[in-house]
Amino acid sequence: MNISQHFPILVIITLFTGAYLAPLAGLWKRKLCYPLAVLSALLSFLFSVVILLSVLEHGIIRYHVGGWEPPWGIELLVDPLSAFMALIVSFIGLLAVVYSKDYIAGEIPDKKLPAYYSLLQLIIGGMLGALMTGDLFNLFVMTEIFSISAYALVSIAQKKGSLIASYNYLILASVGTTFILFSTGFIYMVTGSLNMVDISQRLSALESPWVMYNGLILLVIGFAIKSALFPLHTWLPDAHSIAPSPVSVLLSALVIKVGAYSIIRSVFTVFGPGLLEQSGVVTIPVTWMASLGILLGSIYAITQTDIKRMLAYSSVAHIGYILLGIGLASTASMTGGIFHILNHALGKACLFFCAGAVLHKTGIRNVEEYTGLAGKMPITMIAFTLAAISLVGIPPTSGFMSKFYLAIGAYQESWIFLAVILLGSLLSAVFYFRVINLIYFGEPEHKSGVREQGAEIGGVVHRQPTTDNRREAPLTMLIPIIILALGSTLFGILVHIPLSVVEPAVKLLLGM
Amino acid sequence: MINLLPPNLPYFICITLLLIGLYTMIIKKSLIKKIMGLNIFSTSVFLFLISMAYRRGGAPPIKAEGVELYVNPLPHALVLTGIVVALALTSFALILVINIYKEHKTLDSEKLTKL
Amino acid sequence: MNPVVIRTVTRILVPFIQLFGFYIIVHGPVSPGGGFQGGVVVGASMILLALAYGAHEAESKVSHHVRIAMDSLGSLAYAGIGLLGIAAGGLFLQYNIIPLPLPPARVNGIMIFLIGVAIGVHIMALVLSLFLHTTEETEKDD
User: Fold this and answer.
1) pLDDT digit string, tens, across residues C71-116
2) Which residues contact A28 (CB under 8 A, 6 or more apart)?
3) A381-436 pLDDT, tens digit each
4) Which chain A residues touch B85 with a CB distance below 8 Å?
């Protein structure tokens, strides 16, 4: 037997082992936690690269944990979509772990470092587990693992308001996970199986669809809370903006995407596109809510003055694009939606990293104070601009390509959705270009009142008086920023690379 | 005695508990009561899973001679896992609430949102 | 007030509760129960000790560092047993092909027993930690 066959489970186990090694290492030498976390994140990244290549070459990988055959045992099922998502998750997870070293030193007390790195690996491992699994109940367990780690990570810095943000997130999201468990029960009741492929075969033989719709609706509501679909997004802005920046990256770029992925899985793999076309019971509400989310998320983002809050509201809008593409369920829109998962992950991770770097070096959180930062942190600000342009969707960047596919898919369905996508892009241009304008052309005026408020919210970071010399963030923070900014630009030009993965994934999902 | 009850009574109880839990989480202002609501909510789902597994006259799922009908063991495994998850959630939420109280000296969610 | 009754009863009960907990862990492969349930019982006995004698008493019996070590080692042992399956040429957690000079059913039993012990060690430390973390921090009041 070949060792590469075991990679789907090793991806997850590496991180979970690392998560439990971190407290042990912390007992001996706290400095060891960071290299260990980087090592395990790097290993799982390499494993997911190999998985993606082998999925593209040999087709779907199925791994039966413990040697038990599917309807009884837990099966790991890796198709192009999950391999694609796993690569994004492990890559940005790796960057977030690398970024943490210097950032987190000023943010949380030293004795919490082992716990921080342990939780960081648990959240990435949980997400990878949720992506790889082919078992509905296992999906619930993995969702809970990364969710509980996320609640803890939001509150770990114990800043003002972070506890309440974490509490609100916990209460709302655990209603979601309980719905998922409830729906798992419903589906088990009518089909007698927990394996996704097995369920979909048994459901298509079912006569009365009503119990099945019940299960599907509960499942989609549960994952919609996880992925912050518009009316259920209320936990997101607080949690994402108050968390330490590497955690904001994980939450905003990855956790809500895994929620969206789970919606794709439950709608297209568990229930199958055939059953959906008869009903539209899920796709139509999801589409409309996603459209509302695009518009209102962008409008809320315009009104924000805190940079991280603005980015968090922008995430509400972007999860709208992704779910709009999924809800329309045509080839072009699905391609756009899944491609947008990659682009938003790269772009939003880059923006949060940049905001974190600025916060770390200068303590600035307020958008108005970004005036003249281009002179002080030129590389960070160029990266910020590139990522923002990509998220707005301006041609040479990758954000344009995914929005282009989305627009084609939307136009095939109705002009309303096309209008929503265009209007949403315009609105996002408003708040991103306001920041870019301030960075490059803003007059450096210092309002003392505003600055002190910024200091109070930022709270932790040592603020030095602004001087004109160039002060970039440390290399561990700068390198992830540069990689992500290059990525979100290059994938717009080398668009065939991500599309070569996304297109087979979409074909498989739509059963073509 | 148990045979006299209508067969779908557990499901009604389960839905009632589910609604009580949701109501508590939405209406009550105290953060602790919200956690209690969450626990009632998740317990109702456990009850649902357990009552689904029950077969009238079924034996415990341990292989024995001369027994034809077993209770379905899988939902019990699901409920056990669910209880472990609920334990983790509840304990984390309670520690969070303790810290919130230490910081703000109140557990009233309306007062806390004003801060 | 010196809670004599509570302390005396606790002193008598705790060993028996722990014995029962270990019985549940060890008897996991052949009867209802297992690592989690037994671990919770053992952890609960320590919580009883903490309630009767104060948190510092339980802390001195099983200190923070020991709990972290138990916690991590238990989980790592579980992962290690899973990886043994891969090392033996099978799949993850497929322990019936681990080459031991025993019939496969016996090997299964031994491995489930070991997993139960690993989970038990993990959970007993965890349950006590959960309890002590809530009380300690309120007493210290930062």
Assistant:
1) 899 999 998 888 888 888 778 877 777 777 777 778 888 888 888 9
2) none
3) 999 999 999 999 888 888 888 899 999 999 888 888 999 999 999 999 988 998 88
4) 141, 144, 148, 177
**Considering only CB atoms, which chain C residues are within 8 Å of A21?**
72, 76
Look up residue C106 and give its two tokens.
Answer: 């016996």
CATH of the domain at B29: 1.10.287
Judged by average pLDDT, the poorest of A114-118, A448-452, B17-21 is A448-452
Residue of C nearest to B61 (CA): C32
CB contact under 8 A, A163 and B82: no
> Does residue B115 sit within a domain?
no
Residue type, A443: E
Q: What is the pLDDT of residue C138?
A: 45
Residue C73 belongs to what domain range? 4-140
- pTM, two decimal places: 0.90
Residue A357 included in any domain: yes
Query: Closest-CA residue in chain B for C140?
Result: B102
Q: Is residue B3 part of a domain?
A: no
- The better pLDDT of the pair C6, A468 is held by C6
Query: B61 in a domain, yes or no?
Result: yes
Q: What per-residue confidence (pLDDT) applies to A92?
A: 94
Residue A468 lies in a domain: yes
Tokens of A309: 């809050």
- Report how many domains make up chain A: 1
CB pair distance less than 8 Å for A171 and B52: no
Return the sign of the alpha-carbon dihedral for residues A338, A342, A344, A349: positive
**What is the total residue count of chain C?**
142
**Element (DSSP H or E) covering residue A62:** strand A61-64
Q: What is the mean pLDDT of residues A109-116?
A: 86
Residue A378: what pLDDT?
86
Residue A63 DSSP SS3: strand
Across-strand partners of A64?
A: A75
Q: Which residues of chain C are within 8 Å of residue B99 when distances are taken between CB atoms?
A: 137
Local structure of A463: helix, strand or coil: coil
B107 touches chain A (CB under 8 A): no
Count of domains for chain B: 1
ipTM: 0.91
**Torsions phi, psi for B29 (to 5 deg):** -90, -25
Q: Is position B1 within any domain?
A: no
d(CA A395, CA A389) in angstroms, rounded, equals: 9
Which tens digits make up the pLDDT trace of A239-291? 888 889 999 999 999 999 999 999 988 888 888 766 666 667 778 888 899 99
Both structure tokens of A473: 């963030």
Q: How many CB atoms lie within 10 A of CB C71?
A: 21
**Could you say which of B52, B88, B99 has the minimum Cβ distance to residue A185?**
B52
The pLDDT value recorded for residue A204 is: 77
A88 touches A254 (CB < 8 A): yes
Task: Please count the other Cβ atoms lying within 10 Å of the Cβ belonging to residue A115.
Answer: 18
Distance from CA of A21 to the nearest CA of C (A): 7
d(CA C110, CA C95): 9
Domain count, chain C: 1
Q: Which residues pair with A62 in a beta bridge?
A: A77
Strands A75-78 and A61-64: antiparallel
Residue A340 to residue A334: CA distance in whole angstroms: 10
Domain that holds residue A512: 282-512
